[in-house]
């Protein structure tokens, strides 16, 4: 028991002795100030709140960008299908007799324009800011709907 007590006293003494050593003034670096000493407590609290708000805003923007990227990726199969529909429609229109081809030509042109609008809206969504991506997504979805309606109209007319 005495050995443990003596050991504990020696350890405590060593800790106190190392804490009392004279440190070299050149090597010692003071800890960075946590708050501006010239400012009042209220200003420091305001600054900390602003920093926290910036961090929260950045986190929210990062989350919105991640959602935007997922939404753009989710649109890719629909755009690929739209391209296949456009190709199929163009092939069918080219095989029509001259009278039907002339009648279908404006409808095919309308589908091509709708496809161009769709791809433009999807590209805009991919590059939209964190604040604007949802509106861009809605515009891309509306363009997809318009494209599908134009394809249905053209296919029906070519029957």
Can you describe what's shown?
This protein has helices at 2-19, 41-94, 98-126, 133-157. It is mostly helical. It has one domain (35-157). Helix 2 (41-94) packs antiparallel against helix 3 (98-126) and helix 3 (98-126) runs antiparallel to helix 4 (133-157).
Question: Element order, helices and strands?
Answer: HHHH
SSE-based structural type: mainly alpha
Tell me the fraction of residues in β-strands, as a range.
Answer: under 5%
Q: How is the main sheet built?
A: none
Overall mean pLDDT stands at 79
Helix count, per DSSP? 4
Q: Give the total of domains.
A: 1
Using only CA atoms, what is the Rg? Answer: 35 Å
> What is the approximate shape?
rod-shaped
User: Which regions contain 5 or more consecutive residues with pLDDT less than 50?
Assistant: none
Estimate percent helicity. Answer: over 70%
Give the strand tally.
0
- State the separation between the terminal residues, measured CA to CA: 103 Å
């Amino acid at each position: 028991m005495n050995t443990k007590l003596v050991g504990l006293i020696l350890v405590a003494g060593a800790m106190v002795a190392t804490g009392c050593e004279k440190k070299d003034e050149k090597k010692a670096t003071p800890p960075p100030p946590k708050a501006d000493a010239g400012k009042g407590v209220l200003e420091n609290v305001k600054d900390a709140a602003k920093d926290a708000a910036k961090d929260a805003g950045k986190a929210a923007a990062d989350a919105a960008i991640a959602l935007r990227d997922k939404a753009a990726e989710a649109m890719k199969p629909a755009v690929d299908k739209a391209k296949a529909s456009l190709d199929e429609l163009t092939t069918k229109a080219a095989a029509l007799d001259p009278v039907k081809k002339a009648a279908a030509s404006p409808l095919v042109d309308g589908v091509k324009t709708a496809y161009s609008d769709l791809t433009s809206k999807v590209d805009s969504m991919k590059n939209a800011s964190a604040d604007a991506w949802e509106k861009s997504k809605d515009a891309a979805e509306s363009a997809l709907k318009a494209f599908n309606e134009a394809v249905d109209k053209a296919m029906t007319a070519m029957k």
